[in-house]
Amino acid sequence: MADKWPLANGNWSNAANWNDGTKPVVGDTVYADGKTVTIDESITVATLTTETRSGGTGGGGFVLTTGFTVTANLVAGSTSNSTVITKSAIGNSAIIGDVTGGPGSNSVGAVHSASSGTLTITGNVVGGSYNLSHGVLQTGQGITAILGNVSASPLVAAVGSPAGVYNASTGTITITGHCLGGANTNYVVQNASTGTVSIVGNVTATQCLAIYNSGSGTVQIVGNVIGG
Known about the structure:
Blueprint: E1 3-4, E2 10-11, E3 29-31, E4 36-39, E5 43-49, E6 61-64, E7 69-75, E8 85-87, E9 93-96, E10 99-100, E11 111-113, E12 118-122, E13 125-126, E14 136-138, E15 143-147, E16 150-151, E17 163-167, E18 172-176, E19 179-180, E20 187-191, E21 196-200, E22 203-204, E23 211-213, E24 218-222, E25 225-226
Parallel strand pairs: 1-3, 2-4, 3-5, 4-6, 5-7, 6-8, 7-9, 7-10, 8-11, 9-12, 10-13, 11-14, 12-15, 13-16, 14-17, 15-18, 16-19, 17-20, 18-21, 19-22, 20-23, 21-24, 22-25
């Protein structure tokens, strides 16, 4: 169990580009450290994060290419544009682990799906606590399938209506799990364009809108809905 970070932009598979000259392994906490790392193989670590390590730099991020699986919890940092994983390649990829949005302004989602194809997330998703710091942001035309619960940030002081899941385009988001409301104007799920959100599970609001269909798209819910 160690802290790992890249020395420059490059591929995950290049051992020479990691501190100590070795690739991260199971149990490691991996910081982007302000660099952009392309995940070009399936990986298993404890955590991927854009938080600032001691003596390091916040921000940066990881680009998930087609056909690979990331097994790790994802934690967004407070730096602007501090997305942990971006899926920008056409095709299917997977994340196994919990996803947590950050406290930074415009962090653009802990996970950003910006392409067609399918991204499967097996784990719980929690939204961040500042403007656009969503848990999962989809701007592509593909499918994001979440197998787990989705929650808004529980922080009352959150600003700018961050969401657990934000569908900004024509794509489809499916959630097999419960949607749990947070505080303030932190939405659990926002469908902001012409896309589709399909939920199989219960929806419970507390002090916010649990589901906000602010565009002309479709929201389908199979489960109980309880207002806050």
